[in-house]
Amino acid sequence: MPRFFVDAPLHTGALLDLPDAVVRHVQVLRLKAGDTLTLFNGTGGEYPAELVSLEKRQLRCNWANTIPRSRNPYRVTLAQGIAGGDKMDWLIEKAIELGVTDIQPLATERSVIRLDSERAAKRVAHWQSLAQAACEQCGRNRVPQILPVRPITAWLRDQDAVTSYAWRVLLSPRADSGFDSLLPQAPAQPGVLLFGPEGGLTPQEETLARDTGFEAIRLGDRILRTETAGIAVLAALAARWGGW
Fold this sequence. Notes:
Elements: E1 3-5, E2 15-17, H1 20-28, E3 36-40, E4 47-55, E5 58-63, E6 76-81, H2 87-97, E7 102-107, H3 117-138, E8 145-146, E9 150-151, H4 152-156, H5 159-162, E10 167-171, E11 177-178, E12 191-195, H6 203-211, E13 215-218, H7 226-241
Parallel strand pairs: 1-3, 6-7, 6-12, 7-8, 7-9, 10-12, 10-13, 11-13
Antiparallel strand pairs: 2-5, 3-4, 4-5
């Protein structure tokens, strides 16, 4: 059944005019009056809906009952050094499919992409739209937030931001500990996974992260690309902690 995100209150028995982006998608799918679809607004739960009228660019849907969805047994933020090209788009999409709670883009010394404040805001808006689309596709009803881009040193020194995570993990090829050192059971408190961009984090950035309470781990002898490393760890955590 097609799923669509709408940024509007949803409640039983109401009629809703869907936004233009959803209307265009419905038209591409050639849906017609009487067809069923699913709506969600990112606050939890989803609503089965029936398309009751179709007029040019306007749709009206009527729904009966909300359907709750199971939640991930853990909460994890992906702190990612901004990757170049379309790697960041791909990484955000897959990370959301694998259950991240939020994504913190970080500007690092080795980041290929350099964003001023205006470009950073536009890029975050673009990434947020990707997050909504990923949730439509994979069945998540809470849309992860793409946080504003921050320099990694400023973020690591922001005690309010970093210490809000009960557990903090840094992926580094220089680490002594492996993946097995992580907790065997899903922690009740939220955590954060930190990954560098192409070329990884600098030794100085890693040292600052360790000084801020990050535990460094490695994934064996192979060096993974930045767009692979985060996805590999998130998939492994889902398998270990029951996030599937």
